[in-house]
Design goal:
Elements lengths: L3 H11 L19 E7 L5 H4 L8 H5 L14 E3 L5 E3 L6 H5 L3 E8 L7 H10 L11 H8 L4 E4 L14 E3 L9 H10 L4 H7 L2 H4 L6 H9 L2 H14 L6 E6 L14 H20 L6 E7 L19 E7 L6 E3 L20 E2 H13 L3 H8 L16
Length: 393
């Protein structure tokens, strides 16, 4: 006899243990447009990923972890303009930047009081003015204004996608999907349970969404994040695939052994760059209609700590990539790194609220109006104006 526990395990194997179930279908409103949100969990050091080498206070302020190109050897960064460079580990992104498919938003973050990962991630995902200020995620609420199929890539649905709109979790490089026989048994067992039956409705469509087992295994051997990005690209490239996806990438909490040219952070950035190129290739022609936004919950302190790393800070950097992006530029109301301009005397000051970035993308790419953005999607945020001109006309 099939138990409830076995049923839930079966739903997880199907990849559709989510909220309300979901049948992947094209969205007439969005057409071929796709949106991917990448959550860089742990607090990425934006001052290392995109070093402001042209700031006159940069070398003094960062101290031993500053990127000093005058030291000789391979340069730790590639200049993007007179002020900002790109970490050498992100060099694979340079062609995207040159082609106008990468824009960087610096000195960006959220008005968080305190330095808790939990509060900061909650704020990043719920879109409210305070942690736990909303019980659903801003991206889920956005689906109410721009209805389309959406999935979290992985075994669980992050707060960002939780809420009243139908979403699901699907890991395209996970275990092999459930068999047709199992789906039939589950459907018969729970025919009288609308909630669970609804969760199965999209299962047949999703069974073919993941990568073949052998291909997934080969990809994972070269890195799980890279494999997941490539699989996500293949998933969204399908005409019947979802239009919105969320990917989570951990490992950015570099309290120790962060490094400069090399080290823990450089490895993280290199893997992210490689995974992004894999995503772009896997998406094929639909990359021209895809926007990818990468954000982290907070930046790191300006000066390093005593263990070769950096501690929790305030502002950092966010990335916007994709065919529609009006890139090849760093968007920053740069506050400077002089002692008098640091937040709390130790952090890069926040000058761009990440919600302004998200609002701009939702308006320009998903055609969501300002009233919905200010009131429903990001409650009580009318004072935060959307960033404009992020995408090509």
């Amino acid at each position: 006899m099939t138990t409830r526990r076995q049923l839930l395990q079966g739903l997880a194997a199907v990849g559709l243990l989510g909220q309300h179930g979901l049948s992947f279908a094209a969205s007439p409103q969005l057409g071929e447009r796709r949106l991917i949100v990448v959550l860089l969990r742990g607090g990425m050091d934006g001052l290392a990923a995109v070093p402001p080498y042209g700031d006159p206070d940069y070398l003094r302020a960062r101290g031993e972890i500053a990127f000093d190109a005058s030291e000789g050897g391979d340069s730790p960064y590639s200049p993007l303009n007179d002020t900002f460079g790109l970490h050498s580990a992100l060099a694979p992104w340079l062609p995207l930047y040159s082609a106008g498919e990468l824009a960087i938003v610096h000195a960006a973050g959220l008005p968080l009081i305190g330095r808790s990962h939990f509060d900061a991630q909650d704020l990043l995902e719920c879109g409210a003015n305070t942690p736990k200020g909303a019980h659903s995620g801003w991206l889920n609420r956005a689906l109410g204004s721009a209805p389309c199929s959406a999935t979290a890539i992985g075994a669980a649905i992050p707060l960002l996608l939780q809420g009243p709109q139908a979403v699901t979790a699907l890991d395209p490089i996970g275990e092999a999907p459930a068999s047709e026989e199992l789906l039939e048994r589950l459907a018969g067992l729970y025919a009288a349970d609308p909630t669970l039956l609804h969760a199965l409705q999209g299962a047949d469509e999703a069974r073919g969404m993941g990568l073949p087992e052998g291909e997934a295994r080969k990809l994972k051997a070269k890195g799980v994040d890279r494999a997941r990005f490539i699989a996500t690209g293949s998933l969204l490239a399908k005409a019947e695939g979802p239009r919105v996806a969320v990917i989570e990438v951990g490992g950015w909490d570099t309290h120790a052994g962060q490094g400069v040219r090399k080290g823990r952070l450089a490895r993280q950035l290199s893997a992210l760059a490689d995974a992004t190129l894999g995503l772009r290739e896997a998406m094929g022609p639909v990359w021209s209609q895809t926007v990818v936004v990468m954000a982290t919950e907070f930046g790191r302190m300006v000066k390093g700590n005593g263990t070769g790393g950096t501690d929790h800070g305030t502002a950092g950097a966010a990335f916007v990539l994709g065919g529609p992006v009006k890139g090849g530029r760093v968007l920053a109301d740069w506050p400077g790194l002089s002692a008098s301009r640091l937040a709390d005397g130790r952090d890069l000051a926040l000058t761009t609220d990440l919600r302004a970035l998200f609002k701009g993308l939702l308006h320009e790419h998903l055609a969501i109006d300002r009233k919905a953005l200010d009131q429903q999607i990001f409650p009580d945020s009318a004072a935060i104006k959307p960033l404009t001109g992020l995408l090509r006309a």
